[in-house]
Write a structure and sequence with these properties.
The protein has 151 residues and is mainly α. Helix content is 63%, strand content 0%. α3 crosses α4.
Length: 151
């Protein structure tokens, strides 16, 4: 007899949740949050869509061996830690080069990487104009303070 729609069968359709997939997902999420990165950040570094990476983190699917290796590199973890063979890293992993960037800046960088040369030139001109405007405002604020103006 088939299950009724909306029951457990529908809830688990398309999922491959195992203890291993759940362990990998939990470890990946913990490491990502510790690094203050978004799922989009890791997905980009690993070469996955954010949706697929999200499924991996939720434990809904197991990564292939090459993808597992890329996740380890992106998160600075050993595979042993990711799959739960050890509880803690023996050595601290190197932080990602753009770890200090805010999620908004990393999102902007991802967008810029997708631009064609014409769009990039327009974006560069706009950003340069905004930077000049900001510098002028700062200089004006300094002059106003020096002359006792009320801001």
């Amino acid at each position: 007899m088939k299950g009724k729609p909306g029951k457990k069968e529908d809830a688990t359709r398309g999922r491959n949740r195992t203890e291993l997939s759940i362990q990998i997902g939990k470890a990946a999420r913990a490491a990502r949050l510790k690094l203050k990165l978004t799922q989009e950040d890791i997905a980009e570094r690993v070469g996955l869509t954010p949706e697929v990476y999200g499924r991996l983190e939720r434990g809904d699917m197991l990564p292939s061996t090459p993808t597992l290796t890329k996740i380890c590199v992106a998160l600075g973890l050993s595979a042993d830690l990711l799959v739960g063979l050890v509880e803690r890293e023996a050595t601290q992993a190197q932080p990602a080069p753009d770890e200090e960037l805010t999620p908004e800046i990393r999102r902007l960088l991802r967008l810029v990487r997708t631009m064609d040369p014409q769009q990039l030139a327009i974006f560069k001109g706009t950003a340069t104009g905004l930077a000049k405007l900001n510098k002028r405002r700062q200089q004006q604020g300094k002059r106003d303070k020096e002359h006792g103006a009320i801001i």
